[in-house]
């Protein structure tokens, strides 16, 4: 995790069973529940940020397609990927309308 420059206290209400599971896991890992929660939140937020970036990229690609009509067919993409998989360094197919 990156170094924290400013830490703000935040409370979270956990259901009793989850709190117990967290405490048991922390004890087994010789870490604090706080450390496990920070790690879990960091992992979750990073993954969700990456997912959102991918979603935004897909939306932008779709918008570009809707505006221009430029595309490659599934067969063209599959053929290109097959060449790459075979170890051939080939250029990607040209986009067309």
From TrEMBL:
Matches recorded under InterPro entries: Arc_rbn_hlx_hlx, Ribbon_hlx_hlx
Family matches, as CDD domains: RHH_CopAso-like (cd22233)
Gene Ontology terms: biological process: regulation of DNA-templated transcription
Top-rank taxon, per record: Bacteria
Name of this chain's protein: Ribbon-helix-helix protein CopG domain-containing protein
